[in-house]
Design brief:
It is a single chain. The protein is α/β, with parallel strands linked by helices and 197 residues long. It has one domain: 3-Layer(aba) Sandwich (Glycerol-3-phosphate (1)-acyltransferase), CATH 3.40.1130. 35% of the residues lie in helices and 17% in strands. The chain is built from six helices and seven strands, in the order αββαβαβαβαββα. α3 links the parallel β3 and β4. The radius of gyration is 16 Å and the shape is globular. The protein starts with a helix and ends in a 6-residue tail after the last helix.
Length: 197
């Protein structure tokens, strides 16, 4: 189911949205966190479709699982629930287990979609997971997904840029500093999007 949907979405994004995927080679094998800005509901499928041959697991807000049918579908596609606004130990354990067994975890560090397209402040969980699981973080910039039906634009061009891996050491950096460094890297990718080819 996952691979069929990934192929369909990749075709859709290629034909309808003329997407650009940059920096796929920056994603290492083994456990890794993809940390991206969040501007649209299109973001999770865009990230998933952009990574070939590997499934990406997303933390998704608990409310999305309240509808049993939709919850079942997104669970089959690799999503698992997280309670927002509190330390969800079950979600943290699930995420760490996935990472320690060599999987890709997708996270939107801001914790919610940006309504104006600008980066917000990161939640502390990103750095915690990276340190606990001992995995690198790939700062990722998503561009264009928030422009559908905006200002008369029907089919904007999508771009996704995967940055260089960041590895964290708890002994030299605070959790806040680690998360801020990821957001700074995403900000740089967004600022230099036109020069990334």
């Amino acid at each position: 189911m996952y691979e069929l949907l990934r192929v369909f979405l990749a075709l859709l994004f290629s034909l309808a949205f003329r997407w650009q995927k940059i920096g796929i080679e920056n994603i290492p094998s083994g456990g890794v966190i993809i940390a991206a800005n969040h501007i649209s509901l299109w973001d999770p499928p865009l990230v998933g479709a952009a990574i070939p041959d590997r499934r990406i697991h997303f933390m998704a807000k608990e409310e999305l699982f309240s509808n049993k049918i939709f919850g079942w579908i997104i669970s089959r596609l690799g999503a698992f629930p997280v309670k927002r606004g509190a330390a969800d130990r079950t979600a943290i354990r699930t995420a760490i287990t996935l990472l320690e067994t060599g999987n890709i975890l997708g996270i939107f560090p801001e914790g919610t979609r940006s309504k104006n397209g600008k980066l917000g402040q990161p939640e502390p969980g990103l750095a915690l997971l990276a340190v606990k699981a001992g995995v690198p973080v790939i700062p990722t910039a998503i561009i264009g997904t928030n422009k559908i039906f905006s200002n008369g634009c029907l089919l904007p061009k999508f771009k996704i840029i995967f940055g260089k891996p960041l590895q964290f050491d708890r002994t030299t950096e605070s959790m806040e500093a680690m998360s801020s460094r990821v957001m700074a890297e995403i900000s740089d990718l967004l600022a230099n999007a036109d020069t990334n080819k």
